[in-house]
Give the backbone structure.
Amino acid sequence: MDRPNIVYLHSHDTGRYIQPYGYAVPTPHLQRLAEDGVLFRQCFCAGPTCSPSRAALLTGQSPHSCGMIGLAHLGFSLTDYRRHIVHTLRQAGYRATLIGAQHVSDHPRLNRIGYDEIADIGGPPSTDRVAPAAVEFLRRRHDGPFFAAIGFQETHRVFPEASPEAARYVRPPAPIADTPETRRDMAGYVESARRFDNAVGQVLGALDAAGLADNTLVICTTDHGLAFPYMKCNLSDHGMGVMLIVRGPGGFGGGKVIDGMVSQIDVFPSVCELVGIDPPGWLEGRSLMPLVRGEAEEVNEEVFSEVTYHAAYEPMRAVRTRRWKYIRRFDDRGTPVLCNCDESASKALWTDHGWADRPVHTEELYDLVFDPNETANLAHAPDAAAVLEDMRRRLEGWMRRTDDPLLKGPVPQPVGTRVLDQDAPDPAALRDAPVKTDR
């Protein structure tokens, strides 16, 4: 068979805040991709922090299963880089190229991951460097199928400075109060999303110009929610919910919208089925192809997500069904870990109003039908006791099936990594954090 090329487009910190998901964030090229492809409305990352989420997608395993329990640039790594999707695809004749961001290894020049080629973009992976390099790659002659991972640092903070005029008609994301400061903050995100969208347009245009579009599977997603309080590094849907738009052969066309609940760990087995590769035995996800073919409305009764380390240790696990969300914390801390939230005007609003002293709960249970913003914790509600027990059972069963290290107690910081104390207020302090050198 003529296997399709695969272009994996990924951004930082975008969640679902783009035009095709109904938000007032103009992204016409992503809208075009959705109208030509398939939009997954209910996709969730396996860990709402940068490296764990990407590692889960690219290995088809939960972060604790593949070993990526923290951030790659702080020294965390995969247990076995041979489980990265590039090695499975290579066995089927694919050549793998990295263009821009990757964030599952802190040694990109050493190519620890195993790409056949890493494009020289001449600096940080901003859209103005990555998009031209991607266009140049797509213009080449390709003698066989390729996997091109094209990663952009947008929409990561620091956002572009927004003018007062640009901030007049924007609305901050759902967890954030609407103030002049937070509107300006969100306007910066909107500008960053515009730049990301423009880069996507350049890639799509290059596929068209090269005659590759019809036989290329485009997978467009992000790592997790926006870099605002209660979003990134949180197990709310604001943190777990991500865009996933796929266009290409195998039924990924026609502007189809799929409401089935899916996880990013389902991408790897879906690719295997589509291109005709036997799925590796370590995969934890399920192929999405029954949803795409219209043979099923759901492939997952539940999805899971997790945090272990980000800037600091904050062990949490979550299970989500169509109606319910259960979050469990695995330490005795009773207040937020502020350094796990990026600095911003929106964070300043919360900290100025006492966020550091607001309690967090060991267990949280939310009814997503009546409380989609997850504000009314029902973990102690008598009429929700049966649901609580069911969700506890689901979470514990998954943790046991995947041999979650949290079952044995606190997860020690790995040697060679850097993290902050939980009481540090600002993640910028990581620049001076010491590397752990002993066990």
User: Anything to note?
Assistant: The chain has two domains: 5-292, 303-409. The radius of gyration is 21 Å. Residues 180-209 form the longest helix (30 residues). The mean pLDDT is 96.
